[in-house]
Amino acid sequence: ETGVTQTPRHLVMGMTNKKSLKCEQHLGHNAMYWYKQSAKKPLELMFVYSLEERVENNSVPSRFSPECPNSSHLFLHLHTLQPEDSALYLCASSQVGGATYEQYFGPGTRLTVT
Amino acid sequence: GENVEQHPSTLSVQEGDSAVIKCTYSDSASNYFPWYKQELGKGPQLIIDIRSNVGEKKDQRIAVTLNKTAKHFSLHITETQPEDSAVYFCAATPGGGADGLTFGKGTHLIIQP
Lengths: 114, 113
Fold this sequence. Notes:
heterodimer; A: seven-stranded mixed β-sheet; four-stranded antiparallel β-sheet; 11 strands; globular; B: mainly beta; six-stranded mixed β-sheet
């Protein structure tokens, strides 16, 4: 595997379900991000983890719960979601403290809440 | 916080012609400006970026210009090809730390054969 991978690629869940999205980066980076991409809206930053510590929570509802067990893995735990939470959820990674600023994205998880 | 405006929302050009997409930003603390290309069913792919200490950067058919005084930056694609058809996003961030990107709304570029 190379780059940033995300599973599952597609997810359909009911409003009472609990599910998790997984992201793994194979780039040796030390920061990871969750973004939400909704139709006709800019990509929105949700969470930032640097050196496995959460450094930003961009006013995201508590029904979204992130977890970063190590610098290569990032999870987004979902529970009691609303239909308006249907979107493409993108994970990204970068190297903090180095000479480069690039963020690299995974392919995303297309989430549909019914 | 940062606000990024992107224009146009849709751009249709003839194959072989040039395409220009423009963005403005609001936060003078922003120093890093990447451009992403997103094809259907895929995540955003970084295609070029520029830092505030540089006014222009070029990579083959793609170039980016930055006017830090006016707080605007642009993407230029020359000799467009069908595979350039995609949605393009500009973004801004202070850079260097664990800073999230603030994105524009995107430009759907259509290359007409």
